[in-house]
Specification:
It contains eight helices and 50 strands. With 786 residues, it is mostly beta strands. The protein is globular, with a radius of gyration of 28 Å.
C-alpha cells in the first residue's frame, strides 16, 4: 500500500475427458437400456418420493422417466449422516432395480443400500460397484434408498438407479434380464481401472470434470506446528458507535480543504520487486507459461448482476473531516448479512442497504474513528496519529456479529516509524453494523522473538464454528524483511459477548519451505457446515512466497478449535502439499490510453498496473471442499504474455490424524489480449458462486467484472458489472518524464456469499465520479444470484 502525505478455461485433460466420458455415456446408454416395464412414472414418479437429510446435504436428480442419480451427504462437517429417498408401496409384491455406485472417497466411508420400513440393507460401499436388487414389500409399507456417510468428507457416494419396477395394483411388471448389463459394465469398469485412481463405472454428473484431474494428484509429507496461549494480549479498549461518529462529523460542517501532499511516503507491498520489469525494457515474457495451452474467456454482453458504486478515493480521502492520507492501492473488503452490506477500503468504511444500495451512514467514516483513535494526520497542526492499513471486514452468521480489522506499524507525531506495531479489531455488539462496536487492541511487536521487533503485515480473516482467525506475515520493523508467519486464533463466543480479554492462541510458523507466506484462512458460507470433527477445524491455503515457477498448493488445517473456549486452549495445526496447475509470478498489466489529468501535470505517461504476486487471494470452504484463487502469468491464444488468474477446487479429508486432499477441478482465467487482476472467489452452500476481478488492458479501462462458477463448471463468459471510464491516474503510477511507472492497483478484491445464496463482490475500477487531484480509483459492489 502507498500513502502520500505531508511527509478459463479448465486446462487439464479436456480432450481425454471428452473421449472417456463420451465412451461412458455410450456404454451406459447401452447397458441401461430400459425394458418395457414400469419406471419412475405415475405413482412411482420421482416427485412422489420423499427426500430426507439427517446431517447431510444429499440430493436427487431425474434422468428421464427411467433413471435417477441419488447423491449422498458431503457437507464438510466431518460428522456422520444419511440421506433417505422413500415412498409407500402401492401394492404388495416385488421391488427390483439395477444400480451403479461411484465415489471418490475411500472404501467404507460412504455406503448405499435400500430401505424396507426401518431396516437398511447396504449393497455398495466402494467405487465402481454394480448390481441388481430385488426384495418384497407389502402394500403401504415405506421403502426406498439410503446413502450413509461416516464423515461428510472427501466427496459423496453417488447411486444411479435404473430398470426400476415396483408393485402396482392390477399392473404386472416383468423382471429385467440383468446379466448382459452386469457383464458389460464390469468389463468397462475393469478397463477404466488402468488409468483412474478412484473413480470408475457410470460416473455421476457431479464428477464428470474430475476423472483425469484426480490421477494427477500427489501429496507431500505432512507437517505439524505448535503454538502458545496468548490470552491477555488482546484487550477490549473502547466502545464506539459507527453511526454517531458519522453524524457527528456531518454536524461539524465542511471538511478541511484538500491540500497538495508532498513529499510522498511509500508503504510498499511486502514482497521483493519482481525483477521482470524495467522502465526501459517494458514487459518481459513469462516464458515458463508459453507452452501451456489456455483458453480465453469471452465477454458476455448481458449482465445479470445488480450493483452500485462503493467507496471512492475521494470519499476515503475526505473522511474524518479530511484528516486522512491519499492512499493507493485501493484494497476493498466486503461483508454481507441481515439486509446490510459493509464495505471497507484502505482506512474508510461505509454501510449500505442490500436491497437498494443506499448508503446508511451520512458519509464513510475513517477507521481511526471506529477504533477510537485520533486522525491519521491533522492537516491543521501537522500532527500524525495512527495510520491503520490492510483493511478487512467480516460478517459471521453464526453469532450475528460484524468485524472490522486493521493493523498498524506505529509512528511518532511527525510520521516517523517506530519499532512497535498493533492490531485493531472492532466487533459489533448487535446485528446492526451501523451500531456500537467493541474495539480490541493487541501489541504485535513480538519483542524478544528472533528477528523482531515486528509488525503483522497483510492480515487476513476467517472463522469456523468456534474461532475467529487472523493470519499475517510477520516482518521486521528494523529491516523490513519477512521473518515468519503467524495465525492468531480467538474464541468467537468470547468476542461476541464482549469479553474483556478473550481466549486466544497463536501459532508462529518459521519460514522454511516458502509456503508459509500469506496463509489465507477459509470462509464458510451461510448454510454450509463447518468442519466439526476432531474438536472442530479451520482450513487455510497458501502458495509459495517466491517467484519461481510452481505447481503446488499448501493446505493447512487447525483442529481442536473448540478448545478456544477453555482457559487453556490447545488447537493443533497441520499442513500438506497438493499438486495443482502450474503458476508463476505475474508481470505488470497494460492500460487502454485515455485522459491523464494528474499524469499530465507531472509530465508522466500512461502507467502500467502492478500485476500483484501469486499468493492465494481467497478461500471458501463448503461441502467438504476448498475453493481457492490466485494470480498467475498466463498466455493467450496469440502467445501474448498477460496477467490472469487460476482457480482450484479440492476435496478435503482428515482421518486418523492425516490431512489429505483430492484435486477435483482447476483452470486458468484469462481474456484474449487483456488482463484480469486480483481474482477472488465465493461460493454458496451448494458450491455455486462467482469469481470477481478487475478487467483491464488495451481494450478496457480498469473495470469491475466477474465470471459465474460452480463446483462442476466455470461459465464461458465474463460479465462486466461496471465499465471503467478512464485509465488509472493516481500518484503511485508516475516515475519520471518519458517512462511509464507501475501504479499500485489493489492487493485483493472481495467476494462473499449471503444467506439467500447470492454472491456479493467488491472490485476496484475507475468510475465516472468525483476524484481528488492525486487519485481517481473507486470500487463497485455487485450482487449475483447463481
Amino acid at each position: 500500500m502507498i500513502r502520500q502525505s505531508s511527509t478459463h478455461s479448465d486446462n487439464g485433460g479436456q480432450r481425454w475427458r471428452t473421449i472417456v466420458l463420451a465412451g461412458l455415456a455410450l456404454a451406459a446408454s447401452i447397458a441401461f437400456a430400459p425394458p418395457a416395464q414400469a419406471g419412475f412414472i405415475g405413482y412411482y414418479a420421482l416427485n412422489n418420493f420423499t427426500l430426507t437429510n439427517t446431517n447431510a446435504d444429499g440430493s436427487v436428480l431425474p434422468d428421464g422417466d427411467s433413471t435417477f442419480i441419488f447423491t449422498g451427504g458431503n457437507n464438510g462437517s466431518a460428522l456422520s449422516g444419511f440421506t433417505d429417498l422413500v415412498i409407500a408401496a402401492n401394492a404388495s409384491g416385488t421391488v427390483q432395480f439395477t444400480y451403479g455406485y461411484a465415489t471418490l472417497d475411500d472404501a467404507g466411508f460412504d455406503r448405499a443400500g435400500y430401505l424396507v420400513g426401518d431396516t437398511f440393507t447396504p449393497f455398495a460401499d466402494s467405487d465402481g460397484q454394480f448390481g441388481n436388487v430385488s426384495f418384497e414389500v407389502i402394500s403401504g409399507q415405506l421403502f426406498g434408498f439410503r446413502i450413509e456417510t461416516d464423515d461428510n468428507l472427501f466427496e459423496p457416494g453417488i447411486l444411479t438407479v435404473r430398470d426400476f419396477s415396483a408393485p402396482l395394483a392390477d399392473v404386472g411388471v416383468p423382471e429385467p434380464a440383468m446379466w448382459p448389463v452386469l457383464l458389460l459394465i464390469a468389463a468397462l469398469a475393469a478397463a477404466l481401472r488402468t488409468w483412474r485412481r478412484r473413480a470408475s463405472g457410470v460416473l455421476p454428473i457431479v464428477f464428470l470434470a474430475t476423472v483425469l484431474a484426480t490421477a494427477a494428484q500427489s501429496l507431500s509429507a505432512q507437517s505439524f506446528y505448535g503454538g502458545s496461549k496468548v490470552t491477555g494480549q488482546l484487550v477490549l479498549t473502547a466502545q464506539v458507535n459507527m453511526l454517531q461518529q458519522s453524524q457527528l462529523l456531518k454536524a461539524q460542517g465542511a471538511a478541511i480543504p484538500l491540500t497538495t501532499e508532498v513529499p510522498p511516503k511509500i508503504l510498499r507491498s511486502r514482497l521483493r520487486p519482481p525483477q521482470r520489469f524495467s522502465v526501459q525494457g517494458g514487459l518481459r515474457p513469462t516464458s515458463a507459461m508459453a507452452t501451456i495451452a489456455m483458453q480465453s474467456l469471452q465477454i458476455d454482453p448481458v449482465v445479470t448482476a445488480f450493483g452500485f458504486n462503493g467507496i471512492t478515493h475521494a470519499q476515503q480521502r475526505t473522511a474524518f473531516g479530511g484528516n486522512q492520507f491519499s492512499v493507493e492501492p485501493p484494497n476493498p473488503s466486503l461483508a454481507v448479512g441481515n439486509g446490510y452490506v459493509l464495505e471497507g477500503v484502505n482506512n474508510a468504511v461505509q454501510v449500505y442497504d442490500a436491497v437498494s444500495g443506499a448508503p446508511l451512514l451520512p458519509a464513510p467514516i475513517a477507521s481511526n474513528q471506529l477504533f477510537g483513535l485520533t486522525p491519521a494526520i491533522n492537516w491543521t497542526t501537522g500532527i500524525n496519529g495512527v495510520f491503520p492499513t490492510d483493511m478487512r471486514v467480516f460478517y459471521d452468521a453464526g453469532i450475528d456479529r460484524w468485524f472490522v480489522l486493521q493493523r498498524s506499524l506505529d509512528n511518532d507525531e511527525y510520521g516517523n516509524a517506530i519499532n512497535s506495531s498493533h492490531l485493531y479489531i472492532a466487533v459489533s455488539q448487535t446485528v446492526d453494523p451501523t451500531g456500537t462496536y467493541n474495539v480490541y487492541t493487541m501489541d504485535t511487536t513480538n519483542r524478544g522473538h528472533l528477528g523482531c521487533p515486528c509488525f503483522a503485515d497483510y492480515p487476513q480473516i476467517g472463522a469456523d464454528a468456534h474461532g475467529f482467525y487472523i493470519s499475517a506475515n510477520e516482518f521486521s520493523t528494523s529491516f523490513n524483511s519477512f521473518v515468519d508467519a503467524t495465525i492468531l486464533a480467538i474464541s468467537k463466543p468470547a468476542l461476541a459477548s464482549g469479553a474483556i480479554s478473550p481466549s486466544a492462541f497463536r501459532f508462529t510458523i518459521p519460514f522454511i519451505s516458502g509456503y508459509e507466506f500469506a496463509i489465507q484462512p477459509a470462509s464458510t458460507p451461510p448454510g454450509a457446515s463447518y468442519f466439526l470433527a476432531n474438536g472442530g477445524g479451520q482450513f487455510f491455503a497458501s502458495t509459495q512466497g517466491s517467484y519461481a515457477v510452481d505447481n503446488k498448493l499448501a493446505v493447512w488445517l487447525m483442529t481442536n478449535t473448540s478448545s478456544l473456549g477453555n482457559a487453556d486452549p490447545s488447537p493443533i495445526l497441520t499442513s500438506t502439499l497438493s499438486s495443482v496447475l502450474t503458476h508463476v509470478y505475474p508481470d505488470v498489466a497494460t492500460q487502454r490510453p485515455g485522459p491523464l489529468p494528474y499524469g499530465s501535470s507531472v509530465s508522466g505517461v500512461l502507467a502500467y498496473l502492478d500485476g500483484g504476486d501469486n499468493r492465494v487471494l481467497s478461500v471458501s470452504y463448503a461441502g467438504g471442499r476448498l475453493y481457492a484463487t490466485f494470480a498467475t502469468g498466463v498466455t493467450d491464444e496469440d502467445a501474448r504474455q498477460l496477467v490472469g488468474g487460476a482457480y482450484v477446487v479440492l476435496a478435503t479429508n482428515f482421518r486418523g490424524g492425516v490431512l489429505a486432499t483430492q484435486l477435483l477441478r482447476q483452470g486458468y482465467l484469462l481474456v484474449r489480449g487483456n488482463h484480469l487482476l486480483r481474482p477472488a472467489i465465493a461460493v454458496n452452500s451448494l458450491g455455486r458462486g462467482a469469481i470477481t476481478f478487475t478487467l483491464v488492458g488495451p481494450g478496457y479501462y480498469p473495470s469491475a467484472a466477474f465470471v459465474p462458477f460452480d463446483t462442476n463448471s466455470t461459465g464461458p463468459s465474463i460479465q462486466v458489472a461496471a465499465f471503467g471510464m478512464s485509465p488509472e491516474d493516481g500518484f503511485s503510477g508516475y516515475s519520471f518524464a518519458g517512462f511509464p511507472g507501475v501504479a499500485r492497483w489493489g492487493d485483493y478484491s472481495a467476494a462473499v456469499a449471503a444467506s439467500d445464496g447470492s454472491i456479493w463482490m467488491a472490485t476496484e475500477y475507475v468510475p465516472d465520479a468525483p476524484r481528488t487531484q492525486l487519485a481517481n480509483w473507486g470500487t463497485y459492489l455487485s450482487r449475483y444470484l447463481p
